[in-house]
Amino acid sequence: VVPPRSPAWAPLRCPLAGKLHSRMSPAEVVHRSHGAVSPDRGGCTITFRVRATTSFGDSIVLVGGCSSMGHWEPFEGGVPLTTTAEEYPLWSTGPIRCPTPTSSAPVEYKYVRIKADRCVEWEVDGANRSLPLALAQHANQPMVIDDGLFGHIPTGSFGYPEGACPRCPGPMAIQGASASCPRFLVVGDAVAAGHQSWRFEGWAARLSQVLRQRYDYAYANLAEVGASAQGLRKGFKERVALLQPSVVVISVGLDLQHLATCPEWDRHNVCKQFLAEMEGLVEMTWEVGALPMVGVPYPHAAFGKEQAVLLRQTRDSLRQWGVPVLDWLDALSAPGGSGAWAEGLSHDPAHPSTAGHRRMLESIDVAAFEPKPVHARVAKATQELRSGEPHLCFKDGNGFEVAYVAAKKQLLVTNRTRNEYQLNGAWDALRSSFQAARREAPWILKRGLYVSPPDQDLPGGATVAVGLNDSGGPESEARIPAGCTVVLQHITTIHSAPSLAARVLFYDGTLSLFRTEAGMMITNEATCEYNVHPMWSDVRLVTRSLPQGIYEDDSGCPFRTAVISAHGLQSRVKVPGKGAVHLRWKAPLSSLKRVAVLPLGDRCSIRMLLHKIEYDGPCYPFDLTRTTSLADVADMIATGFTDMWNGDLLHYDHEAGRVFHQKWQGLSYAHEVEDGDDPVCDFGRVVARMAKRYSGRAARFDYAATHADSVLFLRTGITSRVEVTDMLSRVCARYPGIHASLLLISDQPSDEFKDLLGVTHVRENFDPDRMYEELDYWMHCAHRFRCILDSHGINARSLYWCPNNLQEAEKELQEAKAAEAAKEAQEKRKQIDDKPPLLHSSVVTKFSHSNLYAIEACQGA
User: Fold this and answer.
1) Distance CA 68, CA 79 (A)
2) pTM of this structure
3) Which domain range does residue 717 map to?
4) Are residues 534 and 399 part of one domain?
5) What does the alpha-carbon distance between residue 364 and residue 382 come to, in Å, rounded to a whole number?
6) 760/793 Cα distance (integer angstroms)
7) Is residue 575 part of a domain?
8) What is the pLDDT of residues 687-706, one digit of tens each?
9) Cα separation of 457 and 446, whole Å?
């Protein structure tokens, strides 16, 4: 809403007040009336550009204090800007002849957005834009001034000669350099290219001038707008090798700008991915025979304190790589640790201004470019990378030593003693030695996971894996057997090895699953333990290609058994952080009897305990309900569960906050009403969700009862002998031929159930309410519960996992049967084909009534 004119405006005496649209706001008139009018004088030719969003019918107009800009009149003298579908939201004028600005006669201007209804919207109140005084030095050269964002007036101007390539301003090639002249190359993003700095004279161009004067460096710049660390890796070695640089500065910040917009939980992943890509660029720079230097990220207007912490952590990681670091983060950042730009140093939210580029140059230690040390370091790296010579990293004097082969990215760990050794970060001497070696030779001890190849024969069939951190020190534990040498290969070389590359079944950037000659190997590049289980659909599906059977690693550790069926992985496997497991095929699937654990209520304690000992899978009907009567449970099973979600039998009690059942009065639900539900006025929405949820859980209950080798029904809470007998009979009637037993856990005498066939009672009380409140109590109950299951032969190896998607499971079974039938048919055909024929060949020599076929056997018949 625009206020009407008032007498308070009159004293401003704005010369435009009678000419502008009547809906213009007071603030617009105020700041525009202060705009100076410059006398026209011959000067320079300029094309203006600005980024502005508009609605249909809007236009962008340039106005200013000279005749070529309309003397601040948008309608009668302003310069309209144009755009295209490809360039939008970038708007541009044609070339405009403007007066040359001076300190005594500046040329001020602004952009306005004229709405479709001719209402004028000025970009900001108060300050105007000004033509840079530096134009006087280039009066005869047509220039482009890029003013950035509509409404944001930077502290400095960004302009460049007409015809220059703003995407890749260069120079793209090293010119005029002699064979002995050191060469300095920059690769990176828009900031490295000098964008938002006057005439692209950014920190890199200014640094080249300093290096030229001090060390006679030649210079090239391959940075381009929109470049990311990941994008730079494509063709990096080829492009850099052509220029034969001595030093390559890699400066990219675009990747980390996502920290301003990505979810909080994804910020660490953004930084991790950035470091991984940067490390790849550093590694390739060493391989082309140049010294890598890295520029640390820079601030962003939208960064807060959390992003600032991540930026500093990323910088600290870069510092540990042993290569020179161009660290301008503190010099550019606002005080207080906000992560934003210091005042006056940014041209727009993401880029430094000309002043910001000058500050970046001042932060660079030019001594790091001294040619002699650079040449010596590069020569040593080139020798080790090409010769394959091992670099000794540690030696304890007792027969244990570790060397690194840079050409193959291998750790060679030799243990000549009779004792097993442990590599870990707590070994101070080992860690310090690794870090010193990394500082001396940054091309060795590459960060990441190192694994013994699956075809390496180690005592006991062990798989050895260790992770190295940014400084080269170990960050996980590896056991080195006595009297052997262990070759540990970097995970990237294992992925690219011809013998294993074709066998990669799954890789998500952290977890890898390989098919090996003996079985499968799983590697984990994360620092935390990974749980690989059947609910992980992608992993389960790829493991269907493995032969069915039991896979183990002989370590004796829990969760080191992989059960592979027609559905793929059917057990939980744990892979330690920065570690690997090699699971070898041990026995056919038929050798293992798998037991389905099916809870029967009375509360959710069984589900909580199964979750804590990590035996939980998809939900069953009684996992999250309260069923105080075992007789009700037996009736639900016998009648096919369907009335559990019958809306006519359900009602919501607002005071209790639960859904109750009218037929089975011992049945109630506490987890079915969700945020946004109104069960009092719209209970049908809750019932519809319950029908979908509990029909699926009931179907899984039936599937597990009929497909597992045996079933253990579990019931907590007080019950009676009569109820137990009734339940068993009704279960047997529902599932004919089922091999089932019942485990009762309740605080009542066991004599009640004495001599009941297939029934075991344990006098114990697991209180779910207390488990929710006390973690120690929950852990105590879980330990006791695991012991109870162990006594019944149920463990991670024998536990039956019910498929979550039963339709998909049935399809997989049919496919497996069809494949097995096709395999048998193929074997039968092969057997027939392999039998020697009765006659190798024959020829019909006569055809008559008396001798219909006269067959002459050939030789060998």
Assistant:
1) 8
2) 0.74
3) 595-647+682-792
4) yes
5) 26
6) 13
7) yes
8) 999 999 999 999 999 999 99
9) 24
